Every structure is written in structure tokens, then in C-alpha cells.
């Protein structure tokens, strides 16, 4: 009994060490999104390339929807751009853009200078939809399922590793769910 | 000496200026202004995580300040505004987390640890006090002691 009591400080120390170690290895920028498993918030904004066209959440339709938050002011958006082009060509998902806190002329220029991977981009110059989505910066990417429910939020750029480790497993699950429905 | 005073005063002044954010909102009444100031101090900037909305210069903090202002203009209560932020950015935006199953340990953890500490200290003190107590002699030993003293 006495021996056991003597071991308690050691056990407490190891437990505390484990908790603190885990805390250090987490990325503090990666917040759990409050919107997972909630419906895509409703909005009414114009299309980036066609200011006359008004978009709502009803327009985000496709097989599996990826909504990518981007801006010309965002360095990592340039970094992830080639991967987005690949993803769009892959055809497994419908890729939409959310042009976040940007200038319409700059953004239009950006899309013609580089390739436009998006079916269309929503123009959110005031960041109103960004706030509805809990966006903190760009790039961020949301995965929305057939029913219009947000299933995942990825903060930071997409590259080959992120795509394989984080997006593909979820996409496979969603594809199975879709087959179940149809 | 005079120069030194001016130097120190200018430093203090510079720091004071930097504490103000660039956007200025006009309020209909003083109470709303006070509520606004309290809310932007209470809400954490989701990007620059060790600052509140009032202190941060990041674009998202400016947007959220505008959002707080607009919600106040719509006559929303403080609770509704806080709920609005939590719905979008999670519990994280609150410097003082709400009571929930997830945050019990944050609220009660320190008190529980203090209680455990006090119990351990009391346990240790009691144990050492026990050791210091003079040992009682058995009846046979007492008799023997008396015998020896008598013999002297």
C-alpha cells in the first residue's frame, strides 16, 4: 500500500507530461470548426465573373462540393492553385471558389493569368459569407455533401499529401453514401 | 532632464495610440458604446489567438468588430451576439468559456487540484505527528522502570 502511494507522484508526472506533450503537438491555428455537420449557411452574393448573376446556397450543387476560400492577396492560394486545377480535372468533386475580401478586377485578372479551376466563384468582398462560415483567413476549403451539409473544413493550402491523407478518405465515404441514396 | 521627460512621455503616448483600433463607430447612446467595448474585449480574435477583437489589427478582427456593431444596431442582446460568434467560430472565441461538459475541467480543475494538494499535506502532517508521539510503555515495562528507580 505504502509503495503504491510513493508511486503516485510519478504516475501524476507521467500523466501531466503526456497531456502537455499532446498540447504541444497540436496546431493551434487548426480550430475545430463549429459548422461541421451543419447546413451550408444561406447567402445571396454575386458571381465573381458575372456581377449580374446572383448566387445562393442552392447553386452549390454537384457530386461532392468543395468550396475553396481564396484571394489574390493570399500567398498560399498561389501555392495550392496547381493542385486545385488537378482536382478540378479529376472530376470526382465539384470545385467552387469563394473569392474572399478581394477586389473584383484583381480577382478576375488572377483567374485569367492563371488557370480558372472553379465552376464559378462567389464574390464576397465584405467577408460576410466568410463570417457565416467561420473563415479566419485564406485558403480554407469546405467539403459539402449532396444534402448541403458541411462535412469537413480544411485550414491552409491543399497539396498532394493533404489531399491524400485528409480529403480522399472523406470523399470515398461520401461516394459510398451517394451510391446508397441512388 | 527636460529631454528625458519628453522622451518618456512620447513613448507612453506612442503606446497609447497603438492601443486604439482604426475603425470608429458612432453610437446612439452611451450604453450601447459601453456594451460594444465590453464585447470586443470579451471576444477572442480567431486568427491572432492571444488578442481580443479590440486589440487586433488583423482584417478578420476588423470584420468581426463591424459584425458586433451591426448586431448591436439590430438591438441584439449581448447573449445573442456571443451565441452568434460561438455558432460560427466555436467556443474558442470566448476568453471565458461557457459551462459545458467540455469545459468543466477548465472551471473546476484548479479547485480540484488545490483540494487534492490540501488532502495530501494534511495526510503527511498527520503521519509525521504520529511518529513524533512518545511511545507508550507497556505495563511490564512500567513495573520494571519503577523497580529500577526504587532500587536506586
TrEMBL record, chain A:
- Protein's UniProt name: Cytochrome c biogenesis protein CcmG/thiol:disulfide interchange protein DsbE
Which residue ranges does the record assign to the Thioredoxin domain? 34-176
- Name the InterPro entries for this protein: Periplasmic_diS_OxRdtase_DsbE, Redoxin, Thioredoxin-like_sf, Thioredoxin_CS, Thioredoxin_domain, Thioredoxin_ResA/DsbE_sf
Organism in which the protein naturally occurs:
Thalassotalea piscium
Q: Which family does it belong to?
A: Belongs to the thioredoxin family. DsbE subfamily.
Subcellular location, record wording? Cell inner membrane
* Gene3D superfamilies per UniProt: Glutaredoxin
> How the protein sits in the membrane?
Single-pass membrane protein
TrEMBL record, chain B:
Keyword Ribosomal protein in annotation? no
Q: Does the keyword Metal-binding apply?
A: yes
Q: Which residues form the signal peptide?
A: 1-19
Q: Which domain of life is it from?
A: Bacteria
UniProt KW keywords = Cytochrome c-type biogenesis, Heme, Iron, Membrane, Metal-binding, Signal, Transmembrane, Transmembrane helix
- Name of a matching Pfam family: CcmH
Any GO MF annotation of the entry = metal ion binding
Q: Provide the Gene Ontology terms for cellular component.
A: plasma membrane
Which GO biological-process labels does this protein carry?
Answer: cytochrome complex assembly
Q: Which residues form the CcmH/CycL/Ccl2/NrfF N-terminal domain?
A: 11-149
- Which InterPro entries does the annotation name? C-type_cytochrome_biogenesis, CcmH/CycL/Ccl2/NrfF_N, CcmH/CycL/NrfF/Ccl2_sf
Transmembrane ranges, per UniProt, are 104-125
Family under the similarity heading: Belongs to the CcmH/CycL/Ccl2/NrfF family.
Q: What does this protein do?
A: Possible subunit of a heme lyase.
UniProt-recorded name of the protein? Cytochrome c-type biogenesis protein
Species the sequence originates in: Thalassotalea piscium
